[in-house]
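A brief tutorial aside. Many learners find it easier to grasp structure tokens once they have seen a single protein encoded end to end. The record that follows does exactly this for Transcriptional regulator, LysR family. Read the sequence first, then the structure, and try to relate runs of similar tokens to stretches of the chain.
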Amino acid sequence: MELRQLKTFRTVATLRSFHQAANVLHYAQSTVSEQIRTLEEDLNVSLFIRSGKQIMLTEAGELLLQYAQQILELEEEIKAEVTKLNEPQGSLTIRIPETMSIYYVPPLIKQFHQQFPKIRLNFNGCSYYSLPKELQSGITNLAFLINDTYQSAQIETETLFSVPLALVVHPEHRLAKQKKIATHDLKHELIFLPKADCSYRMMFEKTLAAEKIEPVVVMDVNSISAIKQYLMTGIGLTILPRIAVQEDISAGRLIVLPWKNPCLNAKLLMMWHKNSWRSPILQAFMEMTREMFRGSIS
């Protein structure tokens, strides 16, 4: 039994998916499957019940997950304590929206790397519903969301700064000339929404649902840059952080629709699990983030 196998097992057990675990761990799915198979052979037990695409933990798997969590937390604690004597080493895994990754994080990475050159930062895309399990299990150390709030008894949430959102279209769009936009004007529109910035789009979708507005179609797009290129063909609309479209607005490639709605007021949230051990390196990253963004306004 190896620590890397326990890490893989914990990730699969938390996400209930070999495919998602492979993405998070940056492994081929065959590597994940092989590590789980080897672990089951070493222990002479089945750890998962496989039913089609669904997997569940067996009783042995549930027990191993508890021990794996303790062992892996102890490993992190040992590394943190021992490396105090030398230059810190290790890694942090962080869930981060695309907007934050592009527009806010670069100077933070530079500063962190200068202070901790041997720490590897693993940034994964936005997640929402799986965050409590990921943060509790330790497969994700820290998460950021652009949203109005996040409610979970297990999660500590800290607001870093406000993130104004903008409803934007191409200047030739049919709504571009209106002096005022009501929510019902969005009915039957083609709407592009980002996958990589997943959380604030939920604020927008809730607003449409509350007023029973049905767009003609919603297209999920993996890239903010791709969404802007789609809009520049003259079709559709989107909601994005103002900072992500400011250059295009200034250049006249996109315009902001005059729509007044509370869902345009989001925040950048930093989130961690209440009861999980926070290594000195994680605490240093969190404090550096606070210092860099304190009082910032997008």
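Self-check: The chain has two domains: 1-86, 90-298. If you spotted this yourself, you are ready for the next section.
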